[in-house]
Design brief:
Elements: E1 5-8, H1 18-27, E2 33-38, H2 50-56, E3 64-69, H3 77-83, E4 87-90, H4 98-107, E5 111-116, E6 134-138, H5 153-164, E7 170-174, H6 182-188, E8 192-195, H7 197-200, H8 205-213
Parallel strand pairs: 1-8, 2-3, 3-4, 4-5, 5-6, 6-7, 7-8
This protein binds D-xylitol-5-phosphate and zinc ion.
Amino acid sequence: MTHIQISPSILSANFSNLGDEVEKLEAAGADRIHLDIMDGHFVPNITFGPALIRDLRTRTKLPFEAHLMIEPCDPYIADFAKAGADIILVHPEAGTHLHRTIQLIKDQGVKAGVVLNPTTNNDFLKYVIEDIDQVLVMSVNPGFGGQEFIQAQLPKIRDVKKIIGNRPIEIEVDGGVTPETAPACIEAGATILVAGTSIFKTSDYKSNIDALRSLSK
Ligand code: DX5
Ligand code: ZN
C-alpha cells in the first residue's frame, strides 16, 4: 500500500510559536512541512518569507516544501532554496515562462513542483512533466486556510495521475483536506495531503494527522 504523506501547513499555526509548533508536528508523525508564501498580490493575503524558513530549518529535519504564491516568483527562488526549502512549488500563472522557472529551481539543487489552481488547465504539465518531482492540485482557491474543499478537483486529480503515468512524480492536494475529504483524494491518486485547519483544530496533532491517513471514514 502507498504510504500517504501528511504535510501540515503552518498557515493555521500560532505564528508567535512556530519553532515549537514545527517540533511538535515532527513528533506527531508529520512527513514534511508545508510553507505557504503569500505576497498580497498574487493572492489576497500576506504571510512570510525566506528568513522564517531559515530560522525554522534549525528546528526540524523534516523536508520543507515552499508553496510560492508570489508574483513574480523567479527573483526569489534562490533565496528560498538557500533558506532551506527542499522542494519549491510554483504556479504557472506566477511567471511568464514556466519552463525557465522550473530550470531555475533545479539549478538550485532542490526539487520542483507545479501547482494547479482549481481552474488551471492540466495541459500546463505537458511540456515540463519530465522536469518535475511533484504536482500540487489546489482544492481551494489559494490565499486562505479554512476554505471548503472543491469537489470538482477530484476528476482533476485523476487526470493528473493519467498524465504522470509511471513517472516517479508525487501528487499532492492542498485545501479543505479533512478526514471526510481525504479518502476521496487518496482514491483519486493523491499521495501527499496538505492540511492546516484539520491538524491545528485541537492540540492533539498526532490524532489529527492519523485521522487524515485513514481511509475508513
Ligand atoms: C491556501 C494554502 C493551503 C492552506 C490549507 O492558499 O495553500 O496550504 O493553508 O489550509 P486548510 O487545510 O485550512 O484548507
Ligand atoms: Zn499551500
